[in-house]
Design a protein that fits this description.
The protein is mostly helical. The chain has one domain. The protein is 67% helix and 0% strand. It is built from 4 helices and no strands. The longest helix has 35 residues. Keywords: Membrane, Transmembrane, Transmembrane helix.
C-alpha cells in the first residue's frame, strides 16, 4: 500500500513541477515604437491558437472528469439496470465529445494536406501555415486580375 502511495506521489510531483510547455506561440504584435505596424493577416492566428490550446486543455479535463463520473455512477449503482444505463450514457457522451474534438483536428489535417503543407509542428503552427498559404494565393493572383493584398 505504501509503495502505491509513493508512486502516486512521485507521479503527481513530476506532473506538477516538471512539465514541458507545449504549443508555445510567440504572439508579440508591436503597437508602439519604431517597429509599430498594423497587424497582418497571419497574426490572426495567435489569439485563435491560444483559444484552441485552452479548449484542448478544457476538453481533456472534461473527458477525464466525465469518465470518472461514469465510473462512480457504475460503482454506486449496485447492479441497478437504470444506474448502469445512466453511467453508460455518461461514457457515451464523453467519448462523443472527444470524437468531435478529434474530428476538428482531422479537418485541419485535411486542409493542410490539400494546401500541401507538411512542415508544421503544432496546431498554432498549422494555422499559421494555412494563413501563409492563403496570403500567398492572394498575392500571386494579383497579376491575373484576382484580389490584391498588399504586404502590411
Amino acid at each position: 500500500m505504501f509503495n502505491k502511495k509513493l508512486i502516486s506521489l512521485i507521479i503527481l510531483i513530476t506532473t506538477l513541477f516538471f512539465y514541458k510547455a507545449a504549443f508555445a506561440l510567440d504572439c508579440d504584435i508591436p503597437v508602439t515604437g519604431e517597429n509599430a505596424a498594423a497587424p497582418n493577416i497571419t497574426q490572426i492566428v495567435c489569439p485563435f491558437a491560444r483559444i484552441l490550446n485552452l479548449m484542448i486543455l478544457i476538453v481533456g479535463a472534461v473527458f477525464v472528469i466525465m469518465g470518472l463520473y461514469g465510473a462512480i455512477k457504475i460503482a454506486t449503482s449496485w447492479g441497478d439496470p437504470k444506474g448502469l444505463q445512466l453511467s453508460q450514457q455518461t461514457w457515451t457522451h464523453a467519448i462523443a465529445g472527444l470524437a468531435i474534438v478529434l474530428g476538428f483536428f482531422a479537418i485541419i489535417l485535411i486542409i493542410l494536406n490539400i494546401l500541401g503543407i507538411t512542415d508544421y509542428q503544432s496546431p498554432g503552427d498549422a494555422f499559421e501555415k494555412i494563413m501563409e498559404e492563403i496570403k500567398k494565393f492572394f498575392t500571386e493572383t494579383s497579376g491575373t486580375g484576382g484580389p490584391v493584398i498588399t504586404n502590411p
